[in-house]
Amino acid sequence: MENNPSYFYHFLEPISDDLSQMANGLEKSIYSSPQTMLMHARTFVEAILQRVMIAEQLSGEDNLTLKERIDLLEKKGLLEKEVLDALHQVRMNGNSAAHETRNFRYSEALLSWEAIYLIVRWYVKKYSPQDIKVPAYQDPEPRKGDETEVSELEERLQKMEALIRSNIQQHKGLTEEMETAASSSSPEDALPGLASVRTIVYKDRSLEVPHFLRDAFLLPQRFEKSESYLSVLGAEEEVRVMSELPNNLEGLHEDVEGFSEEHDEMLFTELKHLIKEETARREVELGHPGKLILFYKSDYVIVTDPLANISLSEEEFDGHPSLFHQLQEDQIERVGQLPKDLATLTKYDDVGLAEVEELFGQLKGK
After folding, report:
1. Residue % of the chain over a pLDDT of 70
2. HEC sequence for the chain
3. Which of 98, 268, 277, 352 sits 20 to 30 Å CA-CA off 147?
């Protein structure tokens, strides 16, 4: 394997097969879907920092966001300047990929790929208990004959993330359920669990965040009364995914102008509703393995092969020409290519929940 490695980060295998295989997935997604690569690169480097914190006996800080982990390690004097810059680049690129609706360029994914190299080289040299030789950096080349679809790459990366987190928690002895999942699953069949991975509190109330929602994107449109608050938090404080929320929401409004304690309380209430709704969706997915399912609020449609192949056009659906035109610009042309959560369609211009609800009704009718 040393003479003819199948992927660049094969040298991580003796340290962590989980990290090695996830890096393999990132490499495959660079040219297939730069956006997918950028989003999951953020979780990859967070997994590395979690291992660093364990090695530095800082593992008691279990629920920190990626930015908080970086800031803590910087404060402790553990990060070199080039590594610090690389971490922030991967973090910010990942946030952009999770938040923005646009076509991401190969060059953006390659910049994160190079930043990952700096982070991995530092981690291996400083924290690997084995004598591992880190090869010189090289740009990945498009793989001829690799026809792995974006959706398949996305699923594999999500499963790898779940396994990585499970194994980290197994190492710390936090959750018996995660220990079982980590020891009995492989990278190809591990599924994100329903076990609680962190607690968010507001005054005397608390809610548990399940493992599969650890890095869920906080789409403002999913929060009817907190939409503008979340939008501002995302723009000014980079609170765009669940893991970037603080453990305690009390006083969160003090970081942005124009909001009050009532907004913190409302956000907490709507977060609780979101988690309940997403958990119900997860149970539906686990009850229909291998099926494509489209969700809208608490309702869903199981997509059959005939439905998946129906074109998203005015000939098939009434009243959505602007949406269909924008979807086609993103190469989404059939029902089977729609995002799992139809509420994300409101990211498109002039598309609101009323339009999405109407489209969902037509989908159910078909």
Report:
1. 82
2. CCCCCCCHHHHHCCCCHHHHHHHHHHHHHHHHCHHHHHHHHHHHHHHHHHHHHHHCCCCCCCCCCHHHHHHHHHHCCCCCHHHHHHHHHHHHHHHHHHHCCCCCCHHHHHHHHHHHHHHHHHHHHHHCCCCCCCCCCCCCCCCCCCCCCHHHHHHHHHHHHHHHHHHHHHHHCCCHHHHHHHHHCCCCCCCCCCCEEEEEEECCEEEEEEHHHCCCECCHHHCCCCHHHHHHHHHHHCCCEHHHCCCECCCHHHHCCCCCHHHHHHHHHHHHHHHHHHHHHHHHHHHCCCCEEEEECCEEEEECHHHHCCECCCCCCCCCHHHHHHHHHCCCCEHHHCCCEHHHHHHCCCCCHHHHHHHHHHHHHC
3. 98
